[in-house]
Amino acid sequence: MNSLRRAYRWIKGRGQSGSRSGFAVRVGFVSALAVLAFGALTNESTITDAVVMGTLMAAAYYFFDPQDTG
Q: Domain count of the chain?
């Protein structure tokens, strides 16, 4: 359990380091991959759905900046 917690903190630290735009692009990319993976499992999703979801998630994370502490 301790190693799992350490791995989570390492991933979180790596994900949040860097610029706001870089973080938004990573979130958008992971969102698009998740939509593609779910679509592959259910045979319903398309590439267009994944691109739209990735773009919207990247825009939302860039403009609303969830990392903002102030």
A: 1
Instruction: For residue 60, tell me if it sits in a domain.
Output: yes
| Model confidence pTM above 0.85 | no
The list of the chain residues with pLDDT below 50 reads 70
Question: Of the candidates 53, 11, 22, which has an alpha carbon nearest to the alpha carbon of residue 36?
Answer: 53
Q: Is residue 31 part of a domain?
A: yes
Does residue 58 lie within any of the structural domains?
yes
6 belongs to a structural domain: no
